[in-house]
Design brief:
Blueprint (H helix, E strand, L loop, with lengths): L3 E4 L3 E7 L14 E7 L1 H13 L2 E8 L2 H12 L2 E9 L5 E7 L5 E6 L21 E4 L5 H13 L3 E4 L9 H5 L3 E5 H8 L7 H10 L6 E5 L5 E5 L2 E6 L12 H14 L4 H15 L12 H8 L2
Parallel strand pairs: 1-4, 1-8, 2-6, 4-5, 8-9, 9-10, 10-11
Antiparallel strand pairs: 2-3, 6-7, 11-12, 12-13
Helix pairs in contact: 1-7, 7-8, 8-9
């Protein structure tokens, strides 16, 4: 039975490709324009569904064309959208993304209906003690705290991806099982300088007062670090691939990791497999559309 619930944002991504990112006040000509399913919640739900066969998504869209397209796309990709509300007085969230020739992106998000997202009053029947709930910070933090409290009380696992970073309320941290953050978000959380070098991060973790029992720091092409309170931190190296578009790679990792964890894999094995899924995703355009299938991840790991 499905045991991954994602609470988060649902956006339409408007993606333009250009040789480089414009400087302030500068206008550049783009090479292409594309519309992709996006939003951190939607991306992570699709990743979890690609891994597990199905996932639940709770959030909000507007009663507009983008909202209808997003719901249809999610459903086509194994995401149960019964928990997604359609808000007549709001527009669907929109992300404007610029991708340069090296595959690096800049993103501006207009939340729209995402600010109206509400935590489910009752968890789906399949959300048993082995269930995993995953959330980000593009929906109201107070609602995430409500959801996490319900899942923890039901014996489940809660994973928080603090992106885009905002100060974390103590109530939310108390009901968070683990954190998945990139190096910039870790720096904001701890007040330390940002670094993607494991040689800088691992020693710093030993002296950082992290309120959570475990965390994962994603490092882009450098892989990730898995840190647990009572064990030495472990670095998983990145995979050498030709990056075309890094949009949504972190979401792919988080959703895939949640699904592998819900399937009973260890933290290490779930992280290793999610690392492979994220590596495959950067070789393709878009966020949701770039998430690999389970068979593709298996083939990648068995190369």
């Amino acid at each position: 039975m499905t045991s991954v619930l994602v609470f988060g944002s649902i956006n339409m991504d408007v993606v333009t490709a250009c040789e480089r990112h414009p400087r302030p006040g500068e206008t550049l000509l783009g090479k292409s324009l594309a519309f992709h399913a996006g939003g951190k919640g939607a991306n992570q739900a699709i990743a979890a569904a690609r891994c597990a066969g199905k996932s639940y998504l709770y959030g909000s869209v507007g009663a507009d064309d983008f909202g209808g397209r997003m719901l249809a796309y999610l459903q086509e990709n194994g995401v149960d959208t019964c928990g997604v509300s359609v808000e007549s007085g709001a527009s669907t969230g929109l992300a404007v993304i610029t991708v340069d020739a090296q595959g690096e992106n800049t993103i501006v998000v207009t939340p729209g209906a995402n600010v109206l997202a509400r935590a489910p009053e009752h968890l789906p029947e399949s959300m048993t003690g082995a269930a995993v709930a995953l959330a980000q910070l593009e929906t109201p933090i107070a609602e995430i705290a409500v959801l996490f409290a319900r899942v923890k009380a039901n014996g489940g696992t809660t994973i928080l991806n603090p992106s885009p970073y905002r100060p974390l309320a103590q109530e939310l941290l108390q009901n968070t099982t683990m954190l998945i953050a990139n190096e910039e978000e870790l720096a904001q959380l701890t007040g330390r300088p940002a670094s993607a070098d494991p040689r800088d991060i691992i020693p710093a973790l030993k002296t950082t007062d992290c309120p959570l029992p475990s965390c994962i720091i994603t490092l882009g092409s450098a892989g990730l670090i898995l840190a647990e309170r009572d064990r030495a931190a472990v670095h998983f190296g990145g995979h050498e691939v030709e990056a075309i578009d890094t949009t949504g790679a972190g979401d792919c990792f988080a959703g895939w990791f949640a699904a592998e964890l819900a399937a009973g894999r260890s933290l290490e094995d779930a992280a290793r497999r999610a690392n492979a899924a994220a590596a495959i995703s950067v070789t393709r355009a878009g966020a949701g559309p770039s998430v690999p299938t389970k068979s593709e991840v298996e083939s990648f790991l068995n190369r």
